[in-house]
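1st attempt posting a full record on here, be nice pls
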Amino acid sequence: MSKPQHHEIVVIGAGIAGATITNELLQLGKSVCLIDSATGPAAACSSHPYAIAHPHIGRGSPRLLRLTRVAFLLAEERWGATWNQHGVFQPTRSGKTFHREEMTQYLRSLGLDEQMALALDAKEAQKTCGISQSGVWLPRGASLDLSIAAQSLLSPHEHLQCLWGVGVESLQWLDGKWALLNKDKQSIVSSDKVIIAAAMGTKALMASVDIRLPLKPVRGQLSIFSVSKKSEWANRLPKVALSGDGYCLPAQEFEGSDYRWVVGSSFDEGEEDLRARQSSDDFNREQARRLLDYEQASCADLKGEGSFVGVRCVAGDRLPIIGRLVQRPGVFLATALGSRGILWSALAAKLICAQVLEDDLALDARFGLAADLVAALAPARFFAGTLAAPSALGALASNSKPIFPSGPKAK
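the predicted structure (as tokens):
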């Protein structure tokens, strides 16, 4: 048997995260071997054609709010021509009084100026967004077809080798490098540095080196509805995207008379079933009424025309896991992106590439990634105790609550 090829850098996973990281490395002059069990890029959840992007301004930890602002700016710069900027409106939550000054001060505290976020009363929102509700207007909010984006990032390149239809089942530390093994325990390639961007597949790969990550699947279904122009819904359909309890894209006219409207998504924790469900479409019909504050409307007028089902990967604390795995030198993770793949993949590309190239100190200066934010993303937050070297692989179980690394405290 011939000796497996050796590469300095291998990326496992060709979804939006793996594709973005690979492209970033290529731009930095590095050679990359990309491996995926599918026959091409963006075969799983990253085949999502209706992903939405905007800074997070609602409930969540201060770290999450700060991180999504940085990630949004990186994503906006990253996606270029494939970035469909149509704006996103986030209505005031039901039962909550709108206070413009209070909301404006809150937005500015997040570092969001008027070009990024603007508090609107119901009349202003009707004029700007076609929605008669108060809330926050995010004019730079956008949507993205993840599949198109991933494919464009992986166009042929002299320093890129892609191994399609190749499944990596486990890792093994052997002779000072990482061996990537198939299901028969045969070595596919070896590498000095391995970047794992395999969503839920990351959990099994980490278990093969005695690292247990708190990852779980979340099934989501988007519904594609047709709405007749004669329907009572017709004059209420949004011309911008909405985000709140669920989200929707701008309604689009099609086939000369009806509207096409994408609404979602269901949130089914612990499930991986990719079959479309009528119950999920019904759930999204109810979400549509809530988004438009239109409880008296008939859900029967939202005719099902199709759906998209994807399985997201999330961590216990709902933050992504991005960065070097200090317990296993040479291994880097980009997983648990949840429903913010557009944002987190752009951030992961900058963070992981800086770490791979050992240029960590530039992260804060160039991208606003202060040390506490990097720590909030790090895999190390889930582990306590002595860190084992790869020559002494000990089992490292995840804690039920994240343990943040010593040093600057994450706020």
